[in-house]
TrEMBL record:
Pfam families: PAE (PF03283)
Species whose genome carries this gene: Gossypium raimondii (Peruvian cotton)
GO molecular function, one term: pectin acetylesterase activity
Lineage start: Eukaryota, Viridiplantae, Streptophyta, Embryophyta, Tracheophyta
Protein name in UniProt: Pectin acetylesterase
Superkingdom as given in the UniProt entry: Eukaryota
Family statement: Belongs to the pectinacetylesterase family.
Signal peptide: 1-21
UniProt key word Cell wall biogenesis/degradation: yes
Length: 395
């Protein structure tokens, strides 16, 4: 099982070396979704601000961002009962899939540490407040910044365009640096991430587990990382089209990997994931006449036939996780919301009106699963039954 899992990860890395990403996305629309990344809202007037630490040892290892700058992370030290517990949150933010989009990306915080915020707010699963993050508030909490354009995988370069695709090296350099700062003594560890970071948490899950003694409690959480090989509104497959006939690379899709991850894994996903609707299910390339334009930005404007199509996508997602859900050690929280990345936003992670399924908020579900307080495999009824959703609407 272990060998098979690693074969698929190697295939995935090889794919990313070839195309350096997945989707020639619309930058404006992606930025709208990313604007919700940090979840600073009226629920959190005074979030903890955590400074950026550069990984100074990374340069000698060639573990650099797209533009050759040093990678970095934000770390808030744990204390008390959490002093020897570590939560690693892998940053998300789409992908670049060709020289043009990667050159554009290296002039942003997603491709260069030059443009990264020197401080970011820690909210949601990263919050330092027990009332906002009951199980992980006093852990060592790390946000690893994302600047390779390919979910912390790949190891190649394009000298002509001055692009470095060193995601795998960044991942290893960051883990080595954190191990030297105390993570090697972790009694408990959780690898997490949202979106492209959620996919990375799946790809690196078993590798992360193997960095610790068997006596350490190590699990993984993927938030909004279940990208499906789904049919788009034109009848094509927008994501699969990038494979360009390379046989076998469809194994990259997480639906083909999750059942073979040996480490306990929790999948948190919206059944109507906003990113997948906008960029995979109903992208402009599959909707040249704009029939889906209003629906893809605001679910309230979807017609009955469009909602039937999206209900089909939900069913496809549920079918994709059937095998995965049979493992007693794995966890699930699939809510029927139009959302994307729910762990880092305070209003969706844990708040007075945060999303719930069967009266259980996301933070409580994840905590129950991680600490083995209860088995957690919760699937929401279909839209529009869930009135607790914090649905994303774009203008």
């Amino acid at each position: 099982m272990m060998k098979l899992s690693w074969v698929w990860i190697v295939i995935a890395i090889a794919f990313l070396q070839l195309v350096t990403g997945f989707l020639d996305f619309n930058e404006t629309e992606l930025s709208l979704i990313e604007a919700y990344d940090y979840g600073v809202s009226k629920l959190n007037y005074n979030p903890l601000m955590v400074g950026l630490t550069f990984i100074t040892s990374a340069g000698a290892k060639g573990a650099v961002c797209l533009d050759g700058t040093l990678p970095g992370y934000h770390w808030h030290r744990g204390y008390g009962s959490g002093a020897n517990s570590w939560l690693i949150q892998l940053e998300g933010g789409g992908w670049c899939n060709n020289v043009r989009t990667c050159v554009y990306r290296k002039k942003t915080r997603r491709g260069s540490s030059t443009y990264m915020e020197k401080q970011i707010p820690f909210t949601g699963i990263l919050s330092d407040k027990a009332e906002q993050n009951p199980d992980f508030f006093n852990w060592n909490r790390v946000k690893l910044r994302y600047c390779d354009g390919a979910s912390f995988t790949g190891d190649t370069e394009n000298k002509a365009a001055k692009l470095q695709f060193r995601g795998q090296r960044i991942w290893l350099a960051a883990m080595e640096d954190l191990m030297s700062k105390g993570m090697r003594n972790a009694k408990q560890a959780l690898l997490s991430g949202c979106s492209a970071g959620g996919l990375a948490s799946i790809l690196h899950c078993d590798e992360f587990r193997n960095m610790f003694p068997r006596t350490s409690k190590v699990k993984c959480l993927s938030d909004a990382g279940l990208f499906l090989d789904a049919v788009d509104v034109s009848g094509g497959r927008t994501l699969r089209s990038l494979y360009n006939g390379v046989v076998g690379l469809q194994c990259f899709f997480p639906q083909n990997l999750i059942s073979n991850i040996r480490t306990p894994l929790f999948i948190l996903n919206a059944a109507y994931d906003s990113w997948q609707i906008q960029s995979s299910i109903a992208p402009p390339s599959a909707d040249p006449h704009g029939y889906w334009h209003e629906c893809r930005l605001n679910h309230a404007k979807c017609s009955a036939s469009q909602m039937r199509f999206l209900q089909g996508f939900r069913i496809e997602m549920l079918n994709a996780i059937k095998g995965f859900s049979q493992s007693r050690e794995n966890g699930l929280f699939i809510n029927s919301c139009f959302a994307h990345c729910q762990t880092e936003r305070q209003d969706t992670w844990f708040a007075a009106n945060s999303p719930e399924i069967r009266n259980k908020a996301i933070a409580i579900a994840v905590g129950d699963w991680y600490f083995d307080r209860a088995g957690v495999k919760i699937i929401d009824c279909p839209y529009p039954c869930d009135k607790s959703c914090h649905n994303l609407v774009f203008k």
